[in-house]
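Hi all, long-time lurker, first post. I run a small reading group and we've been trying to get comfortable going from sequence to structure in the token notation. Rather than ask abstract questions, I figured I'd post a concrete chain and ask someone more experienced to write out its structure so we can walk through it together at our next meeting. Sequence below, copied exactly:
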Amino acid sequence: MTKNYDKLADNLVNIDNKIFSSKEEAIELMKERIKKIKMTA
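-- Answer (accepted) --
Happy to help. Here is the structure in token form:
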């Protein structure tokens, strides 16, 4: 992944503006969703 969030946000579909209200908010949402999950065993 190239982490080009600006271009990804331009192509992101927001149905009825219910998920995010701006391009910046969409970028923050994407960054939050791709964080690594630390596994504990």
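A couple of things your group might point at:
The radius of gyration is 12 Å.
The chain has two helices and no strands.
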